[in-house]
Specification:
Layout (H helix, E strand, L loop, with lengths): L2 H10 L19 H11 L7 H14 L3 E5 L2 H11 L7 E5 L4 H9 L3 E5 L10 H11 E4 L2 E4 L6 E5 L10 H11 L2 E5 L7 E2 L2 E2 L6 E5 L12 E5 L2 H11 L23 H11 L2 H18 L8 E2 L6 E2 L5 E4 L3 H13 L5 E2 L19 H7 L2 E4 L7
Parallel strand pairs: 2-3, 2-6, 6-7, 7-10
Antiparallel strand pairs: 1-11, 4-5, 8-9, 8-13, 10-11, 12-14, 14-16, 15-16
Helix pairs in contact: 2-9, 3-9, 4-5, 6-7
The protein binds pyridoxal-5'-phosphate.
The site of pyridoxal-5'-phosphate has 14 residues, from helix 4 and helix 5.
Length: about 375
């Protein structure tokens, strides 16, 4: 019944016969092998080496961040980001229920508590108005700290996630955070190359975290990156992620509980080669998004295509459509996956998972509405 759509997608990605069209696949078309070989030849494949430094400098140039610091995954970049934002045990952190589990895991590693606030329908990301409404109803400013009046806990940070690469309404969110003295931490894991009013996502908050997992726009095999506007804080992050070792020619002195969160040089080599190709990757993803937008303009089967929000440039990491209801969403998933086109629903809402069932939430009307309708479509890079 969705044969027309299946044919359109298979045609777009040039799939023939038994070939399945994947949601996303890494593309290696540049200096990957060259840099990996170079890395192996130097024997510096582990936690020190030239590619680590280069990847950080290249990311600073690409994103405009004052400082970029590599991590071994996006998840531990988020863990580090929470710590650097000053989140402590028993604090509360405002975030989305409509996100990937890693956002909430990072909050939990510290012993802090997520509070789930609704998303906007146009961005699918944290809603500044919903955050403000929740704060007005539940919080107060006391001695400069934002406190939850019911639990008595400090509300320390707010973590928006740029869903599928679409930036949230950052200006409005920054304004609410400023007013309530809450730190902004961006989960920019999915939004490398996505801009809000011309500026790279992940560079608006105190800290931003990017992921280089194999399913993201560019990959380092695995890995993450912390982005900072505050160079000094970034340097401190570097220190903490490298066992907090005090530089010395031979002595092993450490001045803090540190972490071994540094991306190995061999992963950074892959990352450098991938970053060189990112403009072409994003051009391809945006061309596919445009083709989807045109295809769905008349809303066949009542399906709407999710476009980038106003004032933004999305990397369109994963294209998303909205089905008319949950029933058609399930039918569409079944039909497309049975007919050689991989599609996926959005993540189960965090408040529905056993670990976070008891967490506070604001009703999450938009999140629940979207969860019943979102389907991700194939979005891999097409090499010309
Ligand atoms: C991928 C992703 C992460 C985690 O990144 P890893 O590198 O896989 O640890 C975090 N948050 C979101 C929203 C993601 O999509």
């Amino acid at each position: 019944m969705y044969q027309d759509i299946v044919e359109f997608i298979r045609g777009r990605f040039g799939a023939t016969g038994d070939e399945r069209v994947m949601l996303h696949h890494p593309t290696f078309a540049g200096n990957e092998k060259k840099y990996l070989e170079e890395c192996i030849d130097t024997t510096f494949v582990s936690s020190v080496g030239a590619f680590v430094d280069r990847f950080e400098r290249d990311m600073e140039r690409y994103t405009g961040a004052a400082k970029a610091v590599v991590c071994v995954s996006g998840t531990n970049a988020l863990h580090m980001a929470m710590m650097l934002a000053g989140v402590e045990r028993d604090d509360e952190v405002l975030t989305q229920a409509l996100t990937f589990i890693a956002t909430c895991n990072a909050i939990s590693y510290i012993g802090a508590h997520p509070v789930f606030i609704d998303v906007d329908l146009d961005t699918m990301g944290l809603s500044p108005r919903a955050v403000e409404r929740w704060l007005e109803e539940n919080a107060e400013l006391k001695d400069g700290n934002c406190r939850n009046r019911k639990t008595g806990r400090r509300v320390k940070a707010c973590v928006p996630m740029h869903t599928f690469g679409h930036p949230v309404h950052l200006d409005e969110l920054m304004e609410v955070c400023r007013k309530w003295n809450i730190e902004l931490v961006e989960d920019a894991a999915e939004s490398i190359g996505s801009l809000y009013k011309g500026r790279h996502t992940g560079t608006f908050g105190k800290v931003g975290a990017i992921s280089f997992n194999g399913n993201k726009t560019i990959t380092a095999g695995g890995g993450g990156m912390l982005l900072f506007q505050d160079k000094e804080l970034g340097e401190y992050a570097k220190h903490l992620t490298t066992q907090a070792k005090v530089p010395h020619r031979w002595a092993f002195i450490h001045d803090h509980i540190g972490y071994n969160y540094r991306m190995p040089n061999i992963n950074a080599a892959l990352g450098c080669a991938q970053l060189e190709q990112i403009d072409g990757f994003i051009d391809s993803k945006r061309a596919t998004a445009e083709a989807y937008a045109r295809y769905f303009v008349s809303e066949p089967h009542g399906i709407k295509f999710m476009k980038e929000p106003e004032d933004t440039r999305s990397n369109y990491w994963l294209n998303a459509i909205l089905m008319p209801d949950r029933e058609s969403q399930q039918e569409f998933l079944e039909y497309t996956n049975d007919h050689g086109v991989m599609t996926r629903p959005v993540w189960e809402l965090m408040n529905r998972l056993p670990m976070f069932e008891a967490a506070q939430n604001d009703g999450l009307a938009n999140s629940r509405w979207l969860a019943d309708r979102i389907v991700n479509l194939p979005s891999g890079v097409i090499l010309s």
